[in-house]
Amino acid sequence: xxxxxxxxxxxxxxxxxxxxxxxxxxxxxxxxxxVSYLLQAVVNWSPxxxxxxxxxxxxxxxxxxxxxxLVMYVGLLRGMKPLYRPMTAAWxxxxxxxxxxxxxxxxxxxxxxxxxxxAISLMLVYLPLGCTIAYxxxxxxxxxxxWMALYILISSIIPVLTFLLFPPDSWIxxxxxxxxxxxxxxIYAWVQRRVLV
Length: 197
Prior knowledge:
Helix content: over 70%
Structural class: mainly alpha
Low-confidence stretches: none
């Protein structure tokens, strides 16, 4: 009886402890996605952010902000398929919303009409998906879920708080915005990379 309990516990543990998923994507593509995330973090530094706000450079900003996430999310979508809770539909929604975000970033004229609904939709999907992954799994995949939720919360809430608490062009306001948003992008990219490579 005790042996059966141990075997059952080991079986459950093997289902929920996930440190690696096999995405089938080439290693170079995952590493390129990681570099894209790092570039996204660097672009969040205010002097570069002001430079890339030029409408003529919107396509560069759109690629940098989307490429890494899309590759990682496709990798996680493919890699989680054999798991007991693959969350395939949620991953497809996240991918579709990131493509919509790419389009709104690419075409500044539509940014003000559909940019906010896309951003809110991303928050409404990232947060429950991240929490569900964190609740359902252990190991490195759990970290992906935790940081997915933190990524969307910090990316959404910190800019609003900075805007409310500090005057425009305040160096302390810029630092309070840049440090957490840059840090969360780098950490989120790293935990995704660790699961996929």
